[in-house]
Amino acid sequence: MTRRSAPVRPPVVLTIAGSDSGGGAGIQADLKTIEAGGAFGTSAITSVTAQNTRGVQGTHGLPIPEIEAQIDAVLSDFDVAAVKTGMLGRTEVVETVVEYADRLPNLVVDPVMVAASGDRLLEPAAESAYEDLVAAATLVTPNADEAEVLTGVEVTDVDAAREAGETLVGMGADAALVKGGHVPGDDVVDVLVTEETTHSFRHDRVDTTATHGSGCTLSSAVATRLAHGDDLPSAVGDGVSLLAAAVRYGVDVGEGPGSVHHLVEARNEAARGETVEAVERVVGLLVDRAPRALVPADGTNVAGTTPYAESPRDVAAVEGGIGRTRDGLRPNRGVRFGAGGRLASLVLAVREVAPATRFALECRRSPALDRALAEFDEPVVELAAEVGDTDGTDRPLARRVSDATADDDAPPVAVVDPTRDETGVTLLAPDAGSLVDRTERLLDAVEDRD
Description:
alpha/beta, UDP-N-acetylmuramoyl-L-alanine:D-glutamate ligase, L-fuculose-1-phosphate Aldolase, seven-stranded mixed β-sheet, 14 helices, 36% helix, 21% strand, hydroxymethylpyrimidine kinase activity
């Protein structure tokens, strides 16, 4: 039997950039990000680099006719919906792209000048040539150093980033995203400037040097969202969120700092089904054993996160919780994402200090449970009271967890919150199997001692 084909028609994105033999940046990063974002990636390679996570060992620029042939081949065959540029390297390459600009829709220009390793990727003479390319851009995405080269504005804070963005828009760009990764501070603030508005995108800085490919990944993600038809602020916001996760969950490869995780969102989405199944497995254990000694009077809940969870939408739990009945335990409704409430907030807070933690179970605190937890090898951490600062202000949950775990290297097996009565203990685990094992261990101990 011959099966009928069922083709799909994703939008097409073209990247014009250099090749990175290390796979973390350049064309390789672009194509990974484009495909992960649901578009079809095409490319025109401007140069071949010999590089890895430790730096750039060599660069070979392709002849202009070869670059033109690649661009012509793509544009003559594909309905290109967005284009991004990366490493162009030489004046004549920048000028060549400018010549094609009126045929390059949704043109996102990442003015790559220096690699994350510090190696220069643009000849000084080509800097002035970028002015015409900036003028043709739908969006230009410089970091602070690149923005200073292009505008003369030293980007040291948000106000300076806004000034640099306004200068780039004044040069002809429809919009400018001045990235804040190189600007010191606990937060990273990326500033999007258009002729009409200014948007700031703020997220926590990640303590890592594994940022190889970050600029390529962000510009490719934005171009991909534009190809899907998103408006510019939405496309930039989604790109910034993707990059924040890609940096936090970087890929530990090579002898250098490593690379950002280009597929982080795609892999996270793919894990949603198995996460729900894992939570249901733990719920099934509780229903089967009906452990009244472990379950608070007003019920309990089980939560599980996707591998790269960053928000409550990535946390699955029983909607309405698991209630106690005369016949045992019963889930009020099914398992869904976003239903975890405070339990979701707690497990996300724990993941800030122990990212491998993914599953949690609310338990009834009792002397028997305290004794059983003390027999675990992993630490049990106790949170300080919610009001504990010298100025009397409330301390956010994430900070209370961070303070409580500051002296522990191993991930906690449980968190004890003295401000809560019966639901004061949360059992934690890196996977559903471990949570099942730990739950059964506690059940055996509590039932023996109660």
